[in-house]
Structures are given as structure tokens and as C-alpha cells.
């Protein structure tokens, strides 16, 4: 076994510091959320208990926590479904050149470089000046799509750029219609990528703050509610909320990864069965 070079240890140390910087704050908040009833917002900890987690479920807990959580969950699912559907349609459309395709592509990408707070301000003004209600399910939904759709489209562009069109040609030779080809050939092949786009759409929406700030109306989403709590909550109940929401995010990511694994295994099994059938 060859000895490790000095560069290896330098890179390992840098990576370790980066991981501490990335996850250290989250771990710190999780630790402080398990303090006793007399706990504060900083170290040292005063006791160990689940007091602040129980406090979240009591009626006198500060803020509309569960209402804002339900709104963020519904909004995240709306954005996720819309992002997946539009991204697939856009990816299919951009497989062929059409007039104005380059301009449209750059217009889509531009949404990623415009400051988020300006997007929020512009969408809020557009709704208010048009006489429409500024609400998390309408203006907030539209503002968040300006963030999630470019990511979803970029992923689909990359997927279809590497897609082997011979599968579609074989399906059409066997008499499949365009819809049957998409449903039974294209979508199963790109299923892992669709799950990735769905994960992008949901997680980006679930924790989006800037683009929702001026478009949510009178009802907060969870990130807005947490931000509001930082100004008037002086107990570890805020840390307990952060720990629960982080845990929920990790559960959702794990669920999507499990779906990806199942989809990949199913596709591999189908390919193996097809190969045996040919033999």
C-alpha cells in the first residue's frame, strides 16, 4: 500500500473543515433544542429534555407554526408537480430547433441571475396593480416557479441531450402512438431524472424565503414564520422547530432517494427480463 501524499492530507483537512462549516450550525441548533425548561439560546446547556418539542404542540406556542407548515407543504407539492410537468414538456420541445428557441432559453435562465427580492417585488406589484389578491397560493406560487422551473428545465435539457432516440423509433415501428411512446418508453427511462426534478422543485419551494417575502400576502409560509419568530422568541422552542423542519426535509430527501433506487432497480430488472426474452 502506497503512503499517502501530503496533498491528500491537505485536501482531507479542507474537506473536514468544509463539512463542519456546512453542517455545524444545524448540529448546534439540534443540540440546543434538547435543553431543559430553563434553557437559553446559547451554550452551556441547562439540562436535557424534550420540553421545547412538547411546547411546539401546545396551544400557547408562539406563532402559527402548523398553519405555516401546512401552507409550505401544499405550496411545495404544487410547485413540485408543476415543475416536473413543465420541465418534461419543455425538454421534449427543445429537442428540436424552433424559431426563437435560443432567445427563450436565455430568458428562462435569466430568472436565476435576477436578485430574488426583485422577483418577489415585481410579482407582488404585478398582482396588486392588476387587482388580483396577493396570496401564497397564487402570487407566491408564481414567484417560486421562477426559481424552480429553470433548474428543472436545465436538468431535462441535459437528460434529453443524452437520450437515445432509437428507443422511440423502435416503439413507433411496433405501432405505438406518440402518447404511448412517451408513456411507456420515454417516461420510464427518464424516471430517475424526474424524481430528481421533483426533489429540486419541492425542496427549493419548501425553504424559499426571498421570493415569497412580498408575494405570500397575509399568510406566512414556514420560512417567513420562522424569520418572524426570530424577532420575538427568546427560548429554544425556535431551535426545536428548526430541528423538526430539518428532520422533515431529510425524510423527504430520503423518500425521493428511495424512489430513485426503486426506479433504477425496476428499470434494470425490466432490461434483464427483455434480454432473457430475446434469448
From TrEMBL:
The keyword Flavoprotein does not apply. Residues 69-263 form the ABC transmembrane type-1 domain. One of its GO terms (biological process) is transmembrane transport. The chain crosses the membrane at residues 7-34, 73-94, 103-127, 147-164, 185-206, 237-259. One of its GO terms (cellular component) is plasma membrane. InterPro entries: Bact_Polyamine_Transport, MetI-like, MetI-like_sf. SUPFAM superfamilies: MetI-like (SSF161098). The keyword Cell membrane applies. Keywords: Cell membrane, Membrane, Transmembrane, Transmembrane helix, Transport. It is a multi-pass membrane protein. It is found in: Cell membrane. Belongs to the binding-protein-dependent transport system permease family. CysTW subfamily. This is Putative spermidine/putrescine transport system permease protein.
